[in-house]
Amino acid sequence: MSTTQQAEHTGDHDTRFFGQPWALAHVFGVEMWERFSFYGMQGILLIYLYYSATEGGLGLPKAVAGGIVGAYGGSVYLSTILGAWIADRMLGSERVLFFSAIVIMAGHISLALLPGIAGVGVGLVLIAIGSGGLKANATSVVGTLYSADDPRRDGGFSLFYLGINLGAFFGPILTGLLQSSIGFHFGFGLAAIGMAAGLLQYSFGRRALPAESHRIVNPLPRGRYPLVGIVAGAAILVIVVLVLAGVIRADNLSTIVILAALVATIAYFAVILSSRRITATERSRVWGFLPLFITSVAFWSLYQQQFTVLTVYSDTRLDRNLFGWEMPVSWVQSINPVFIIVLSGVFAAIWTKLGDRQPSTPVKFAFGAIIMGVAFLLFLPFAGGAANSTPLLAIVGILLVFTVAELLLSPIGLSAATKLAPTAFHTQMVALFFLSISLGTAISGWLVQFYNPKNEVPYFSILGGIAILVGIGLLLSVRPVMALMKGVR
Length: 489
Description:
Helix content is about 70%, strand content about 0%. It is mainly α. The protein has one domain: Up-down Bundle (Growth Hormone, Chain: A), CATH 1.20.1250.20. A two-stranded antiparallel sheet has the order 1-2. It is a multi-pass membrane protein.
């Protein structure tokens, strides 16, 4: 590769993809199709679990079904640890991304073809493991396209986020249509086809990614590979035994994932902060990431209820009548991606235009949490209503507020994780950000048990108030947090 080509692939001067490096298009594409399959499947998963057998579902109690969905979502982000570790120690980010896409496709095929609980178990495990590997490493690969001080960085991550939400929009729309017309397993099958399309597209474009995306930053000695295999086998055996013994059950999955994510979080921060391979400046930046992490957990514990409480709410309380036709429940999950598609470019342009004058990362995080809390308070005027009493336009407005909050925190969090990451823990720092999403998502499933349609005021007001207080706390702490971040904004 020539010097010119190398410079081009680093993204320092390349502006062919809407002002961003052309290599971003390849990661944009595979993530778009992965999100199509992920959200398409998730759009019908909860109702598949609690709909009766006569409706094509499994007939589980709603609280148990919500807990499973929350635990599954949390497991996706929890497994980013595994994907990040394999990338940093064994394969590099780009290869893990590619192999993860194959595992995800196998998971969707299992959901489509295997009946009952067996299909749910096998499919969700494979999708969770594969999605975790893909998510942490896709973000890390995007980070390799920019130098640390490139002002396009946040704008590039926002554009990457647009790809995610293009898939998130079309997935629930199309799988919901198939589910409501010919059955759940056809909807799951479409998700598998979408992932296959993403894998095919990425196979042709992966060679154009920079060499940095293939680098193994902390190679594991070959002599330790057998030990890794033994540990992996023992972990699988322990999980199987716990399931057979009844310790791990459908009704406590979200609690188990919350505990696992907490242990992993504490261990991750301890390992990184105590490492001799990071400098004093890098250690300070990791400490600066801690309050962002806490704020992120509070945010995602509310935001991810789109797939738990809001799905139940949409099924029972929302007026989904459109000119005499009742739209599928899953379509509500396509509302947020529409706003993301419209607003992500606006936010990217704003951050790019402001340059060094844009609000700092802690300020963006703080307002993201506060606005998310406000979104929950907006449910209060409709509390205690009858079946199908909430206007569709009201949910559209509330989800617009969800979106503004999301754009202030989620793509910014991905960018911040790559900027604050120590050199020796680059991908694993991204996984640490995803751990905050894992905790928040699992908590969102655990919270379903407290949702009472007959008395909604305490639920929405308490959770909304907590998020607002967390955001205000971070806002008051901006100066010390910025001091810990050592020049990173």
